[in-house]
Design goal:
Blueprint (H helix, E strand, L loop, with lengths): L13 H5 L7 E5 L3 H7 L5 E4 L3 H4 L11 H14 L4 E5 L9 H15 L3 E3 L6 H10 L4 E6 L5 H4 L9 H16 L4 E5 L3 H10 L4 E4 L7 E4 L1 H4 L16 H17 L29
Parallel strand pairs: 1-2, 1-8, 2-3, 3-4, 4-5, 5-6, 6-7, 7-8
Helix pairs in contact: 2-4, 4-5, 5-6, 8-9
Amino acid sequence: MSTHRDAVVRRLTAPDIFRRKGTEPLVALTAYTAPIAALLDDACDLLLVGDSTGMVAHGLTSTVPVTLDMMILHGQAVMRGSRRSMVVIDMPFGSYEGAVEEAYRSAVRLMKETGAQGIKVESGPAIPATIRYLVDRGIPVMGHVGLRPQAVNIDGGFKAKGRTEAERELVLADARAVSDAGAFAIVVEGVAEGLARDITRAVSAPTLGIGASAGCDGQILVTDDMLGMFKWTPKFVRRYADLGAEITRAAAAYSEDVRTRRFPGPAETYFNPKPAAPAETASEGGSL
């Protein structure tokens, strides 16, 4: 029997996202698994398979060790779970910063093996040329400026950007170059409100803020942060749930029930069928 979810739904594309510049705010969240993608799909315009999965799902201390194979695996899962949102996959560190041909091979592999509608790269001095190379060859690209998690080793940590006038001008110029290179959208991370607004006004691509104020064209958060899966929450995150505490509570309740043999109970147990009653037979003395 067909269900509502089986109905054909057109998935959003890069041009759809690009046309939202200056109109209704864009809604984006990260997703790494099929069940979470299915739960987020109706609420979001864009699902980002972020390399943040390295820290969120794999327990890494940064995104640097994340591999292309990891991103493909998570991308395939998110595509299976979603049907409406545009799905964009992060290019992991080391897969695009060298020759443009190498970046193209990495991006093609991501899109071919997952079916995603676009890829994301963190910007830097050489990256706008790479973005142009990819876009000219049919690959929708989302940029990322400001705080760049893959640059953690150069920056000495996850530090907000644009605190000095010189740094502010660099971030603004970076955003302009990314937009001019053909990016359909730009993630703006970890910058002050004034800079976020200046970037949003300066570029033709819509901006998605994360720690960059309501001055952007939309917002994106790491879903696990927003759901309260970790004890510590970044300043720029609003918790919409406290699932971490609820999971801990549920696990403790389950543990107690198992140790006291309250689980499984009759409702969760399969029983052997009752034996059939013996068939009645006629008495040997005949009938009246």
